[in-house]
Amino acid sequence: MSNKxxxxxEAVSVPQIAKIVKKARKIMQSPADFRHACDGKIxxxxxxxxxTRTQMSFQTAMLKLGGRTIGFDNPMNSSVAKGESLKDTISxxxxxxxxIAIRHPVEGTxxxxxxxxxxxxxxxxxxxxxxxxxTLTDIVTLSCEKERLDHLKIGVCGDxxxxxxxxxxxxxxxxxxxxxxxxxxxxxxxxxxxxxxxxEKNGCTxxxxxxxxxxxxxxxxxxxxxxxxxxFKNEEEYQAQKNVFVLDREKLDRARADMIILHPLxxxxxxxxxxxxxxxxxYFKQAQYGMYGxxxxxxxxxxxxDFLIEAPNADISQHRCKNPKCxxxxxxxxxxxxxxxxxxxxxxxxxKRID
Length: 355
Ligand code: CP
Description:
This protein has helices at 14-29, 53-64, 86-93, 109-114, 132-146, 164-173, 193-201, 212-215, 235-241, 249-252, 283-303; strands at residues 42-47, 68-72, 99-104, 121-126, 153-157, 180-184, 205-209, 221-224, 260-262, 315-316, 337-341, 344-347. By secondary structure, the protein is an alpha/beta fold. It folds into 3 domains: 2-131 and 290-310, 3-Layer(aba) Sandwich (Rossmann fold); 133-287, Rossmann fold; 320-347, no CATH class. The strands form 3 sheets. The protein has a 5-stranded parallel sheet with strand order 7-6-5-8-9. Strands 2-1-3-4 form a 4-stranded parallel sheet. The chain has a 3-stranded antiparallel sheet with strand order 10-11-12, with no helix packed on it. The longest helix has 21 residues, at 283-303. The mean pLDDT is 95.
């Protein structure tokens, strides 16, 4: 398997993450120096699920580097509508483009696609699983706005069960010394157990809270997230969860003056609009930092031979993944790949237990 696919930021070492951040900051300082860095290169954006920021920031990133883009933002306008498999789509497009950015509503799709790509492939979100380039966005933001990625007290609030941005963020920040987490959600939408395992394995302090007003008082960073209607089994379950946590002026008044508010966006109701003018509200600036992070990532994947991402070390498993949200359920030709972790056999695609 290639060392040039970004499926999970966990496979990127701390020095490599520092390299991305350094490059992003360099591009921000001197964008003109990079105007022709990707002349002649083509990025394919394959978005099987709606997106504003990730898709357009990747496209803008490639255009600002002098490259061009192809792709679709509605698979029903592609041959996917005629029943073409993921394998065939990726095998063909990797013959057209130099790099692929893919988003899909099914967990493990980016990993599955990477098996059939001849060019670097970037996970732009796979169901409720992971969203590594959102985490790059968050990391670049923290680096620029807090000047550090360690010794931060980070509150994450909202749908921590299905929130792929939260999973990727916690997994990454857990690698840095002294970070602690306050996990603010309803009992139904708490983080999956594998995220708790990661926090414990990394020796990170964490608290579970069901009260945003209490939790907000001593945070360095508050990371708000949307309750994602599209991840619920039915409307009734969504209605029971929406609007439980809303950051409003009254709650923000309890926070420190130097706390920053991040949100991967889109926002629905979880931050009231009057907060937008508060100097601590950085979510729109965060989206712009993301474009620079993605420019840096494209450059490093295409041009830096030393920028290598750990390739998965999976074995063929005798067990088939039973997670109904895993890509192995719908793309039957995929091999059953798994790896061992904490004495358990885990699906290589969706990271759920399979034994
Ligand atoms: N943060 C994020 O992934 O936004 P989009 O869904 O608009 O890409």
